[in-house]
Amino acid sequence: METFASLMRDYEQSGLGVAARSTTWLYPLANLIHVLGAALLVGAIAVFDIQVLRREGSLRALARATLPVAILGLVIQLVSGLILLSAEASTIVDNGAFRFKMLMLLLGLINVVVFHWRFGHFLQKEATPDMARPFAAISLGSWVLVLLAGRAIAYA
């Protein structure tokens, strides 16, 4: 664990961390972009998951429309999140809300991979099996919790 703490201290003292703390624009811009990424990611996932939960119609066109938006949102989130983390990495990693957010992020990502591995071929068919519904519910819940935990970081 000490190695991880040391790694976080080094990351905080990196050029990126110094820039995030010392410039007047980098941290606020990264924060704004992080919110945009969250809107794209969770918005696209929510649209898809709600349709899976409704069990109506084909998901093929919807998946083609939402998956690229979700991927773009995830990339934006990761890049901007790393900038935000660099500003205070040594303390933020001990924040309970941050840890919960990372746990829910991991759950959401694993759920997406398992869903597409297990049910991806159904995206080509008319109906999605009932077994896909719990995955959609877990997905929707985990991504909403990522948002809520992210907001709670400032208050924890």
UniProtKB/TrEMBL annotation:
The chain crosses the membrane at residues 32-53, 65-85, 97-115, 135-154. The keyword Transmembrane helix applies. Keywords: Membrane, Transmembrane, Transmembrane helix. This is DUF2214 domain-containing protein. It comes from Microvirga brassicacearum.
